[in-house]
Amino acid sequence: MSDITNTQEIFQAYLLDNQDQRVLKQVTQPNRGTIEQRLSIYAKAYWLRLYRHHCDFYPTLRAVMGEKPFELLIEAYVNAEPSTFPSIAQTAYGLSDYLRQKEQVYLADLAKFECMLQRIIDEGEGGRLEPSQLQSIEPHRWPFLQFHLHPTVHCFTSAWDVTVPWYAHNIEGKAPQEPLLKETHILLWRQGIEPYYLVISPAECWMLQAFREGKTFQEVGDGLADFMPANDIAPFLIQHLQGWLQMGTFADFSLKPAALNN
Amino acid sequence: MQFLGFGLGLRTPHYDYVLEHQPPVDWFEIISEDYLGLAGRSRYYLDAIKEHYPLVMHGVSMSLGSADPLDKHYLKQLKALADHVNPPWFSDHLCWTGVHGKNMHDLLPLPYTDEAIRQVSEKVRQAQDYLQRPMLLENVSSYITYEDSAMTEWDFYRAVCEEADCLMLLDVNNIYVSAFNHDFDAMDYLLAIDKKRVQQFHIAGHDNCGNHIVDTHDHPVIDPVWDLYQAACQRFGPVSTMIERDANIPEFPELFAELQQAKKIATPFWEEVIA
Ligand SMILES: [Fe+2]
User: pTM for the full model?
Assistant: First the structure.
């Protein structure tokens, strides 16, 4: 092993676990203060930078959990999953999965919701499907249309209504309570440069997921039979398609390849 | 290469102010890692501000001194950003940020050895070749000295830049901080640096803890750092200068006023170019 590899392994081991004191032998005594004081500048900076980032990234989770439990959570998470990312922003993305592994399920869902809202601010680019682009589609081709969701559009289902504490903390400025056990389907998207969410029905959620999976307009219509009487399907489909087109939910459309010869 | 004048670090709280008021700042430095996804809000502001100001890219995660090879995926993203921004140069630090694929998100010090000179300079060459643009290497603040170090920081810095054939981003505050922490004379540092290689200056504030100084970028620049900046202006001639502020970020006009102080100090030495 080269000297530099050895030096860095030992230094990094100290930052990740301050009990690992091998680094003391690599460093010279400063003229003022102690080696331990000087090294602790790096240790403190490592922890504080990550902790502050998670505080900014998960304000609602922090408020729901309380200061000390949140700090302990981030400490455990950062220790379990040291960053491998170029940007510090990315270090926060794995917290929901970590909470799920620890069976902290409602906290995992709240973290996921808060993380998704943050990530759509700076992720996903590209044009939106304009309603006018659909005007030239011949009626007999409509059943074979596939609508592709814009990369900023996401759906997520939580067993808890995690939007309630988020709204209380971020919009109403109130102390957030733990979320209620209530299956909740959430649509998240970015419009312009702002993130938005909307609680949607099971049918709406299923429909968006079906579009994401590449189901055709016809197949989506057929699938909605599980949610409503046959007579309601066509108006439901048309109303939602129009609404979502206005919101910029779709990036593009295509015709299912088998239909191209029709 | 180009003299850009007097710039500031572009920070999120100032986005709207900059767009609305278009203050007479000569250029902005962006933190490359904040824009790697080239999407959404960060891209919106990047593109809008790019319309009005020259931008240079400053990275914090290349980890040039790490025992690991350069991260190819990161370099690819950085190149895509550089192709989009088209900066006259990009920069990163004479440090390592992690080893074995990890990132400690800090500018960690290197031992000043021949092995480290070879390792860093090789990576600077690779990065410059890949991005097809000049790279500037910045000196960092440090708090410890390794037993293994075999030369001064300035000899190490100079040797790496010569071996890599790259330019320097001289952080005047970092020289001051390290001089205090390691008891050397900051002027010895300045006098050892090759005039031809210095392309950019950083100046910033710090936190003096008595026994040592921590490079926090959360205070205004202090007078001894301005004095050192004056000496640097005199020695190196016209060098693009910017103020870094990363925490406790004040309203834009306050930073702008601080930048005027830099201009006032540099003007007597650079009259012909500033006029
Ligand atoms: Fe700097």
Answer: 0.94
Q: Indicate the pairing of strand B240-244 with strand B6-9.
A: parallel
A29 close to B (CB below 8 A): no
In a 3-state reduction of DSSP, which class is residue A101?
helix
Q: Which residues of B touch A9 (CB under 8 A)?
A: 67, 99-100
Which residues touch B264 (CB under 8 Å, ≥6 apart)? none
Q: Predicted confidence band at A1 (pLDDT cuts at 50, 70, 90)?
A: low
Flag if B143 and A38 touch (Cβ within 8 Å). yes
Architecture of domain A131-261: Alpha-Beta Complex (3.90)
Tell me the C-alpha distance between B35 and B9, whole Å. 14
Interface of B with A in 212-271 (CB under 8 A): 212, 214
Other beta carbons within 10 angstroms of residue B210's beta carbon come to 7
Pick B113's closest partner by Cβ from A3, A25, A26.
A3
Q: H or E element: which one contains B9?
A: strand B6-9
**All domains of chain B in start order, with CATH:** 6-274 (3.20.20.150)
How far apart are alpha carbons B131 and B48 in whole angstroms?
Answer: 23
CA torsion sign for B5, B8, B9, B10 is negative
pLDDT at B237 > cutoff 70: yes
What was the pLDDT predicted at B251? 97
Helical H runs in chain A? 3-16, 35-57, 59-65, 67-80, 95-101, 105-122, 163-167, 202-212, 217-223, 230-247
Alpha-carbon distance values, B77 to A93, A175, B4 (Å): 19, 40, 25
What span, in angstroms and rounded, lies between the C-alpha atoms of B191 and A146? 67
In angstroms, what is the C-alpha Rg of chain B? 18
Tokens at residue A252, please? 């593009």
Do B111 and A7 make contact, defined as CB atoms within 8 angstroms? yes
- Domain segments of chain A: what residues? 3-122, 131-261
| Residue A178 DSSP class | P
